[in-house]
Write a structure and sequence with these properties.
The protein is an all-beta fold.
């Protein structure tokens, strides 16, 4: 296998669909990235991925995978994982708690929970380290080599909590080659960012890479009519240091240290409050809302990992990954969207996680095997507080001004796995894998507290409970290499997501009993083909059997109205198709298009309010994305380029429970553009516009005890970037 250097066009503000990687790997290089050795077959370039825990060409992996290179992310102006949804079909990524909690849905499978103690349905991995909580996903993307989005259950190689899929974020690694990068940009709302990286050899056996990013913004698109302040300030900084020691060709050690903080405003809720009319004067102004306090968050993360690779022989490699992550969050918001103290909330979390993985891999001519063991321990401590003196008396709770909940959760997980690929006949490869998992969760010190004038007491005796589970997940598949550049693959895979405990406010201690595992069996048939040297087509069709689905929604009654939480609501079915195409018809022109269609349906409901036949939340039937880029020469050392990109999302329902006014957002189109100039092989300058037509659209709608609240996507923004690379 020959690795081709990857250089994609640097077009900023692709935001939506920069790559159109609808289903199997699509993020190949631009048409200008050709190699001498590859001839015409390398017009579109190659990308090497590690989706199956070893290096492979993306076109040779019998898995539906979207690959976004670091250059692709730069071109799209991507600053966080939320931005990935616009360039990956059938993927929804959103902030469900203003800006500080991220939830990922892939092909309609996800968990829209804001609590810190429950795991996402799509596993999130940063440099091979699994992140246990959705609260830990609000990090900046910087100095990234690539992002791999794997769709469908990934139970054999990735384990529990990957019923939707997995997202691998791989940072750039140290090398002996001196590498210096610096980028700065300025845009709407007095926003600016600086990102830099430097790497190279320290000694003959030691290399290093240091990367730093800061993002600052002085104001934002929202106005708090109560305080008169503009909302949208950003203050975020992330840094990473990597040291790689390679004393011999057979052994290397990589130390990864990272730290980041985010002290920014959070989104104001646009409210339709049934208890007051004060917001009615601003009803026609979607970006003007009320709050007794300006909302903000403080996030801090610190982590380290140590990865060791030992080539025992040319065919056998032992890998060890040891990691520790520490995360804290303090989040203040006004959920009711008025000056009155109905639902003024503060969320405080502290998370510690440890993990250890050992893998032994064998790579032969016709047989590849990888097996290993995995252990993780995490602890989550939470205190959520709701200052509600204007609300509680309305529900028969006079004299009270504050309610809240506290809990602590500890989780231990153990796993053993084996994955193999056997080429048993010319062009035919059998793929199989199994993973056995045991998990135990201890949930204690869980209670709801009531306060009057600072004096608090527990509503019920703190609950202590535990939950344990074991599960076998796996995959069987067949790859058929129909030609030099055509792969047909079929697979049956099974994944599960472990059960757990409610992390939300409740007045009923019985609600704190555990909910059970969910399971998903996926059937998939896919195609990856290079029809012509300059044209690639990828497609996949799939069907999911989804049982004991864990769904977050307004499912629990209480003295203050319906409360949100998680329940195993029943069974569902998901059917869909994805396709993408890339065409480089002439030198300098790169055209990419992708489409995804899914049909979801609740086939069995065991929870009141969940109607059989309903769609799953956050599962628009149709998503489209595309990009057209043209690059031409101005002189011997100067290039110009222009890029137009966009995406479409059809109607989407945010809530599993049907209500008189459904939480539904209609379809919409977003478009972006960018013009850039590159010169002297080192410098690049560009101007960009996102959401060119200033489309107003909602990203989240909630039905609270005081009425409906909405969150809106970003309006039109514009700016410029200057970058230098040596």
């Amino acid at each position: 296998m020959t690795k081709t250097n990857i250089r994609t066009s640097s077009s900023l503000a692709i935001a939506i669909a920069s790559l159109a990687c609808a289903s199997p790997a699509f993020a190949q290089n631009t048409g200008s990235d050709q190699t001498e050795a590859g001839g015409t077959e390398d017009i579109l370039g190659e990308i090497v991925v590690t989706a199956q825990r070893r290096e492979q060409r993306a076109d040779d992996v019998g898995v539906t995978i979207n690959v976004l290179t670091g250059s692709d992310l730069k071109a799209a102006g991507t600053q966080s994982i939320v931005d990935l949804a616009a360039i990956t079909p059938n993927v929804q990524i959103k902030n469900v708690l203003a800006n500080s909690v991220v939830n990922v849905s892939i092909r309609g499978i996800g968990l829209n929970d804001y609590a810190a103690n429950n795991n996402p349905a799509a596993g999130m991995y940063v440099d091979n380290v699994y992140l246990v909580s959705p609260a830990m996903l609000s990090f900046g993307l910087f100095d990234v080599d690539r992002v791999e989005v794997l769709k469908g259950p990934q139970g054999d190689l990735y384990g529990r909590n990957t019923t939707a899929g997995a997202v691998n974020i791989i940072s750039r690694k140290p090398s002996a080659t001196t590498d210096v990068m610096l980028e700065a940009g300025y845009g709407t709302y007095d926003s600016w960012h600086v990102e830099g990286a430097v790497g190279g050899a320290l000694t003959s056996t030691l290399t290093a890479r240091f990367a730093l990013q800061t993002v600052q913004q002085e104001s934002g698109p929202q106005t708090n009519y109560v305080t008169g302040n503009r909302i949208g300030k950003v203050d975020r900084t992330n840094g990473r240091l990597q040291l790689q020691w390679e004393p011999s060709d057979s052994f290397n050690l990589l130390l990864n240290l990272h730290k980041g903080y985010d002290r920014s405003d959070v989104t104001l809720y646009k409210a339709d409050n049934i208890l007051t009319t004060e917001e009615d004067a601003f009803a026609s102004q979607p970006r003007v809302s009320g709050a007794g306090v300006d909302p903000y968050m403080e996030l801090e993360s610190t982590g380290t990992s140590l990865t060791a690779n030992w080539s025992i022989s040319p065919q056998v490699t032992l890998t060890s990954i040891s990691a520790y992550e520490h995360f804290t969050r303090s989040h203040v918001e006004d959920t009711d969207g008025t000056s009155l103290a109905y639902l003024d909330a503060t969320y405080d979390n502290e998370i510690d996680q440890y993990s250890q993985e050992m893998r032994l891999a064998y790579q032969g001519d016709d047989l590849n095997l990888i097996g290993g063991v995995f252990y993780s321990h995490d602890k989550v401590e939470t205190r959520d507080t709701f200052f509600s003196p204007d609300l509680l008396p309305l529900f028969g709770l006079p004299g009270l001004d504050t309610i809240g909940n506290t809990y602590r959760q500890r989780t231990d997980a153990y796993a053993a796995f084996l994955h193999g690929e056997w080429t048993f006949a010319p062009n035919l490869t059998l793929i199989g894998g199994l993973r056995y998992t045991e998990e135990e969760k201890i949930f204690d010190q869980a209670t709801t507290f009531l306060c009057t004038a600072g004096s608090c007491s527990d509503l019920f005796v703190p609950v202590s409970n535990d939950y344990s589970t074991s599960n076998v997940s796996g995959k069987i598949g067949l790859n058929y290499q129909a030609g030099d550049r055509t792969l047909i693959y079929a697979s049956i895979s099974r994944g599960f997501k472990s059960g757990g405990f409610q992390g939300q406010l409740t007045f009923d201690p019985t609600v704190l009993q555990p909910f059970g595992d969910e399971k998903l069996t996926a059937y998939e048939l896919g195609l990856k083909t290079r029809l012509f040297p300059n044209f690639q087509l990828n497609a996949a069709i799939f069907n999911y059997d989804y049982s004991d689905a864990q769904i977050y929604g307004p499912l629990f009654d209480s003295p203050v109205g319906v409360l949100f939480g998680i329940a195993n609501v029943g069974d569902a079915r998901v059917t869909g198709i994805e396709a993408d195409a890339r065409w480089s018809p002439t030198d300098g022109l790169d055209v990419r298009f992708g489409a995804g269609f899914i049909d979801t349906e609740v086939t069995k409901s065991v929870v009141a309010g969940v109607v059989e036949g309903s769609d799953l939340p956050n599962s628009p039937r149709l998503t489209l994305n595309g990009r057209v880029k043209y690059e031409w020469s101005l002189s011997d050392r100067t290039m110009a380029d222009i890029t137009l990109s966009g995406n479409y999302q059809s109607r989407v329902r945010f809530d599993i429970v049907r209500s008189p006014v459904e939480a539904v957002e209609g379809g919409y189109v977003l478009a972006n553009g960018e013009v850039g100039i590159s010169f002297a092989d080192h410098w690049r300058a560009s101007v960009w516009v996102k959401n060119i037509f200033d489309r107003l659209y909602r990203t989240q709608t909630l039905n609270t005890s005081t009425g409906w609240t909405n969150q809106y996507g970003a309006p039109r923004t514009a700016g410029f970037n200057i970058a230098y690379k040596f």
